[in-house]
Amino acid sequence: MKQKVIYLEGIRGAAAFIVVLSHFFQVFLPSVFEGNADIMHFAFEAPAAKTPINLLFNGNFSVTLFFILSGYVLSYRFFRDKENSIIYSSAVRRYLRLAIPAFVSVIFAFALMRFGFGYFNSIKPITQSSMRDPFAADPNIWAMLKEGLFHTFFTYGSQYNPVLWTMTYELFGSFLIFGFLLLMGKHWIRYIAYPILIYFFLDSYYLGFVLGLLLSDLHNSGRNWLELINRPWVNLLLVVAGIYVGSYPYVAPDDTVYSILVWNASGFSFFVFYHVVGSFFILLAALNSKWMQALFGSKPFAYLGKISFSMYLVHFTIICSFGSYLFMRLSSSLSYGADLAIVMSVTLIVIFGVSHLMYRYIDDTTVKLLSRWSSRLFKRKPRSRPIEEGNEFRNLAQ
After folding, report:
1. What is the four-CA torsion angle of 178, 179, 185, 189, rounded to 10 degrees?
2. Does the pLDDT of residue 41 top 90, yes or no?
């Protein structure tokens, strides 16, 4: 049981690390996102942007994988136990679980901005990135409070920490799942509702939550229906397909291996759709593949999973402050490649260090406090960490 749970956390950790790499690329190698040959720094950028190699820095794909994992994990225990109290307990904690660590990350970014530690704008003439300066936000405490506690979770706000655009999706997606489970989680009619929801959210990030919920249902409601396709060649095919469609590029797909994926559909977001579908294929394969479970259940990936939420919250601010400052100081004496190699290596160490502290003193503490509060509120035996919280995958093993 334990190995079958920890590997999910490991997948989340790997996805979080890809998000970190994606923002290094966005800051220092922007042509892979903008498709502009005039701002290329290295020859590999053009082919990397238009081939499955981009999966290594495709942050949007990783975000959709977060959403599918959330859909799966938030419904895991309900499908196993069929107890509504699981949903009530999860629902009353969800906002605070997301908001407390996220708000700390907003305060962190705001403090660096107020003390003048934002150096992204200083390196833009060198890197040629057209990304908005995250330290150009409103330096007002009241604006920061409204952004960090309200807009981040209810209006897709991300003024101080751009990665927080996902928090509204996480909160609304969570309650989409809770509502679905309470209304029809015990009834056969849910199998009619799934295709309706899939159609309704077809090119939306919320599709990820629906597909994760469906996988959890098929995997955990009595019979494991996923066993019907549990064949090595099927798992391999799913991984290959997931890598292909999941690496749908940021640049225009014309004249690339992805051009066949596009059809005439005005307003349809192929970018979101294919990343969600690719994530679905990858998770489906992982739920059946013992070698994927062994890989992502190993200690390095398990550790990445443990600090993944904290790493996701703080990495962008560190890249645009410390990383940008270090790059600026070294740029006059080193080549672009040498400068970037040193900056990435040193900044990653700082990101891991801050993430570990954030996990230990903010994230883990939040989970424990909310777990005790929820246990008293619902008069249930307290768990060391609740099922739906930031390190939810490890919790399933306990």
Report:
1. -150
2. yes
